[in-house]
Sequence to fold (448 residues):
Amino acid sequence: MKTDNITTGQTVWQLMNNGYNTGQFYTCAIESGNTTSNMIIGGLQDNGTYFTNTLNYNQDWPKVFKGDGGYCAIARNRTNYYMSIQQGKVFKLDVSDNGIVNNFRNISPLGGGGYIFITPLILDPLDDNRMYLCAGKSIWRNDSLNAIVMNGDEYGLISQGWNKLNGTTTGGLSNSPSITALSISEANSNLLYFGTDGGGVYKLDSCKSNSSSKSLINGSDFPFGAYVSCIATDRLNANNVMVAFSNYGVKSIFYTTDGGSNWTDVGGNLEEHPDGTGNGPSVTWTHIYNDGNSIKYYVGTSTGLYSTDNLNGANTVWMQEGPNTIGNVSVNMIASRTFDNTIVVATHGNGMYSNKVYTPSSVIETKKDELKVNCYPNPFNHSVTISFDEEIKGEALAEIFDMNGKLRATLRNQSTGIITWSGKDFSNRACAPRHLHGSHNFKFKNFG
Fold:
């Protein structure tokens, strides 16, 4: 808003948005299970939770709840919706398929407290009747969500169905770590992984029991005292786990295939230096997509969305997704559904995005002795347009290497045969010298 005169008794303000629309999403959720539903919800900073039932980006999303929108979930068949707002207030809602809220109730646990501002919650991936909620230094579990009657109560806390899992408590002191991340695999819904803002990663082997105790599974190479921003489990193998630390200047991404007995640094080209220092982005979210035939790994960072088909330790190559759509904006959450290959990405500043997952089985590498590559202008100052021979069809992926053979950038464009590059590497730094040679700078892949 602006005004040309603040000295009058009735100041007139002029709206200056001028068509600028943005969404600072903290979270996102889609309906799980065997469905092709387009129902998506997401919590936004300062602006509550919004809803859509269509992938038509020109259609407005209705606002379905208030506050700072936090973690949310959609039960199978949309029988119930769960939404939260700042400092751990959790609600059960009845939402119609056009986004009308018919009823709701505050279902926050009586006795809970110490919540972080945007409090993680998850539903049991096999049982929508069960929820796990971070409550400061402990985790609470509700086993009877379906039995909770919605009555429009906005402020009342409940004890119905809630149990505090004392075996998850991280300490009783004011400076004890708070729990910041939760994850459960479909392959073993009795195994819960969780992390803290003090760098601890734990697992609870019998999370449906009230008497189980946590086990610390930190790797020897984990950054000391760092913030665990996300834990992702493989839906088909509960021993495959990826952990993200969101701090700058530390190794950010670790992976285990044995439930945390051994961990491997997989930060790869997202780290400027091998020890994690330098200008690598902050990693806020990790996601493992496994459709039973192939696996794809995603990370949300402060500079956009990245993915890889192959984890190769510190040599892992992460490729930026949607550089011309999602862009170099913070990605706070990723959700997917393997039934119809849907993936949804929540950004903090550029709205919500959805797409279908491309897996390695759909990729055909173009093998040619010589690539006919045209770059113009070349050399270039700011950006370069790369075109190549017409034998490469469909969606194109270009990998750009420096003179020493180091991968500096990966580019994807759905326009056949043409890709535009800004001249910047994975850390958003200008590459030099900015002169491209098709004989050694490029590798291309073609997507069917």
